[in-house]
Specification:
327 residues, alpha/beta, seven-stranded parallel sheet, five-stranded parallel sheet, 12 strands, 15% strand, elongated
């Protein structure tokens, strides 16, 4: 009698909106695997290990659940980590490789984050949350919003996201200035920005928008000294990574009203603890890391994930060691 083909178990982690199964056709895996979706988030590594013990394949959404070397070592059944996005710094790729665990990624686009950045800038400048709350409570106009035309936009980091944010600033009729550690005059000019020093950017900008990759040299890049340079009418926007800004210094600047406000989508700890001081600041507009949370990008994430798993399963059947990767 021929032996039955091996049946794999797939865990889909941190599906907060419960959409993973509806945004891709997972039935392509039905004959070879079973899929279990988890909508909650586990922060404790022991709890993560306990949950993932039975699974051969783990699907992770961006950096929501880090897959560290310590976790990988405690998951003897793990054979494939399928991550969304083109990279994931919270996966210990070296540890995975040492234990023979494949890591695959999906396609990606920065467009949703660029769009959210401008949603946050405009909503903060025009006090949209306060005005909406007033209207829903039976009130009417409560504040005077800030203009964008004629104001100065300071962009920290001119990569794919920062460059697009700068171009949109130009479309709004803003003066755009930029800084990052290796930025050149020519690169800044390509997106209609002027290269300035870091201190000059924080002194001159009416809106400072951060667009850097988190690394050893960008962690804590914006702290008390930079915030002290900002105008009392200026606003800080962060849709990159929370630790680029010293969180305690931002809380202090907002509490003391050293700047007009901030709009952030990212935090040192995610999900943000319920009692965190950032939740109570009236001059802060905060969203729960939804920069990449759009229907189109989620469809790409989950559809590519299914394709990656199918290709990996096919490669096993064909005796190949390296799976093809969806792009």
């Amino acid at each position: 009698m021929p032996s039955k083909p091996e049946r794999f178990r797939i865990a889909v982690l941190d599906d907060y909106q419960n959409v993973a199964l509806s945004l891709a056709d997972w039935s392509a895996l039905d004959e070879r695997a079973t899929v279990t979706v988890f909508n909650d988030h586990l922060a404790d590594s022991d709890a993560v290990v306990e949950r993932l013990q039975p699974f051969d394949i783990v699907c992770v959404m961006r950096e929501r659940t880090p897959i560290t070397g310590a976790i990988i070592e405690r998951l003897p059944k793990l054979r494939l980590i399928a991550s969304t996005g083109s990279r994931n710094a919270s996966i210990d790729v070296k540890a995975a490789e040492e234990r023979g665990v494949q890591v695959v990624h999906t396609g990606y686009t920065s467009a949703p984050t660029i769009e959210l950045t401008w949603a946050l800038i405009l909503a903060s400048a025009r006090n949209l949350i306060a005005e909406n709350t007033s209207l829903r409570g039976g009130g009417w106009q409560q504040s005077v919003g800030d203009d964008m035309t004629g104001r100065t936009l300071g962009v920290v980091g001119l990569g794919n996201v920062g460059g697009a944010v700068a171009r949109i600033g130009n479309a709004f009729g803003m003066k755009v200035i930029a800084w990052s550690q290796n930025l050149t005059n020519e690169q800044a000019a390509e997106v209609g920005a002027a290269l300035v020093s870091k201190d000059e950017l924080f002194r001159e900008a009416d809106v400072v928008s951060i667009h850097l990759v988190l690394s050893g040299r960008t962690r804590g890049l914006v702290g008390a000294a930079e915030l002290a340079l900002m105008k009392p009418t200026a606003r800080l926007i962060n849709t990159s990574r929370g630790p680029i800004v010293v969180e305690a210094d931002l809380v202090a600047a907002l509490t003391d009203k050293k700047i007009a406000g901030a709009a952030i989508d990212v935090f040192d700890q995610e999900p943000l603890p319920p009692d965190h001081p950032l939740r109570a600041l009236p001059n802060l507009l905060a969203t729960p890391h939804i920069g990449y949370v759009s229907r189109g990008l989620y469809e790409r994430f989950y559809q590519d994930t299914v394709a990656n798993i199918r290709n990996w399963l096919d490669s096993l059947a064909e005796g190949s060691r390296a799976p093809r990767v969806a792009r």
